[in-house]
User: Fold this.
Amino acid sequence: MLSWFSIVIHPDTCLRLVDESTGYGVFATRPIARGTVVWLHDELDQVLSPAAVASLPAALRGQAERYGYVNANGDVVLCWDHARYMNHSCEPTTTSIGTLMEIARRDLEVGDELTCEYGLAHVIERFACLCGAPRCRGTLESTDLPALWQRWDAEAAEAFAWALKVAQPVLAARRLDGPGALITRALVEHRHLELPSWADGVPGGA
Ligand SMILES: [Zn+2]
Assistant:
């Protein structure tokens, strides 16, 4: 079991070049069941205050802004593993529970890309979306959250219900007394939980 402690993105994933314009993406290397936690924020992820990001040399600041996401405190979190290469999709294959974890929203086959919704915790500046999904919004912007929180709440509740039914090996990397402990503990104990709403901003702690 010790090896799980260094894995906060699901072990059955790999990093692969999508194309020159997109860059890298994260892909399933084995089937991953719907409801499986595929990524979890952990203590090795770097949490940078806005002031710390602003004081970085420009080249590093660009990396933090491109690969980081913004948590409930407004800090930029830079994942230490290949989770930072997860691409956005307007119809993603994973669902965010706060900024704490990502859950597979359908059964993933070998070669499927793990994608997430940047509108929840990533949009620092408005940018064009080229995800190609049928329901692509065309642009991502900070106003997406107030416009779409009801849909995202419903998707989170559905994903969490599925998560209670399947094995969750990634959860071993998480302390049960830290931020997001209520959510993690509920999953470990297979217990239903009323999730915080995106209507209140970015929920779920770091
Ligand atoms: Zn899109």
The pocket of zinc ion is lined by residues 90, 129, 131, 133, 136-137 (CB under 6 Å). The chain has a mean pLDDT of 86. The helical segments are 50-54, 58-67, 144-163, 181-188. The domain at 2-200 is CATH 2.170.270.10 (Beta-clip-like).
